[in-house]
Write a structure and sequence with these properties.
single chain, 320 residues, mainly alpha
Length: 320
């Protein structure tokens, strides 16, 4: 008897359809945004306590001579745990995740899109992508992402700083949506973009330091030391990028935190970026802008490393 022939048309059709979907221009355009957002959210889940401590350091001694109290990261952590509120270290996690879903999705997606453009251009001209092109891609991506993510960023600061207020004055936000809704009702929708100028400036500076220097450092490490594994190159490049990202962005991150924490009326202390800078220099000293650099670096560098580390595995989930 002749051997029955098994039809593979269904399997072939399914494989072809899957292949076409994965490599469709729209899919390829959207995936950098999806990858960036998911990797950023995964990193935030791990780094959130450090971010919480960073905000508390920036708000400590506000308005006091020479910056007032100077709590250490360990002292802040010990105080939160000793008060029996260990989960306060994760205050604002929902806002942090929303911020990453919007901000990091946008900035990593735009950066990937811009770099694809520059890579194509460089390849057609038979040259390597320049540092200037990486800088343009990172600055543009950071600014665009920050504008979109400012409401979630503001909600994050409000939730993280709420515990510093007297008990009777606390808002006790239950979630990021609760915070956004209540702030919009009490202060108006435009209030969600308070501090947007330092937020955008900070994001552009951070993105320039993080993405441009990460990309450049990795390229240089690969060029001058071919013995390092890809993982080691990524780790070293993240450490380098984290330093420059922290150095460039910390002053604006500090101003952003101060502006976004304040509300209306008696709670409003600063009338914009320049007023905040002037008052801080006068009352707390110019060095206040860089106090807590170590904590900020510990928050930025691992986040950069985790974001770029999570990105390839997430990418493989789509292209496998």
């Amino acid at each position: 008897m002749p051997t029955p022939t098994v039809s593979t048309s269904t399997t072939d059709t399914s494989s072809t359809s899957s292949f076409s979907l994965k490599h469709h221009p729209v899919t390829r355009a959207v995936l950098p945004f999806v990858n960036g957002g998911l990797s950023g959210m995964a990193a935030t889940t791990i780094i959130q306590p450090i971010d919480m401590i960073k905000v508390r350091i920036q708000l400590a001694g506000e308005g006091s001579a020479a910056g007032g109290a100077r709590p250490t990261p360990l002292a802040i952590t010990r105080g939160i745990i000793a008060s029996g509120r260990f989960l306060d270290l994760y205050s604002g996690l929902s806002a942090g995740l929303l911020r990453q879903a919007v901000y990091t999705t946008a900035r990593m997606g735009f950066f990937g899109t811009f770099m694809n453009h520059f890579n194509t251009k460089a390849k057609s001209e038979n040259r390597a992508v320049t540092f200037g092109e990486r800088a343009v891609a990172s600055l543009s991506a950071g600014g665009l992402g920050a504008i979109l993510g400012n409401p979630a960023d503001l909600a994050l600061i409000r939730m993280q700083s709420d515990g510093l207020r007297p008990v009777a004055q606390r808002a006790n936000y239950t979630s990021v949506l609760n915070a956004l809704t209540r702030i919009s009702k009490s202060e108006g929708v435009p209030a969600l973009w308070n501090g947007s100028l330092p937020t955008v400036t900070r994001a552009m500076a951070l993105n320039f330091g993080q993405l441009a220097f990460f990309s450049e450092a990795k390229a240089q490490l690969k060029r001058f030391d071919g013995t390092l594994s890809a993982g080691t190159q990524a780790f070293a490049a993240s450490a380098i990028a984290g330093f420059f990202a922290s150095f460039f962005s910390l002053p604006m991150d500090f101003v952003k935190t101060r502006l976004q924490r304040q509300g209306k009326g008696a709670d409003k202390r600063y009338n914009g970026v320049l007023d905040c800078v002037r008052k801080v220099i006068k009352e707390e000293g110019i060095g206040r802008f860089y106090r807590g650099f170590g904590t900020y670096y510990v928050r930025i560098a691992p986040h950069a490393m985790l974001t770029v580390s999570y990105d390839p595995p997430i990418r493989r989930l789509y292209w496998a």
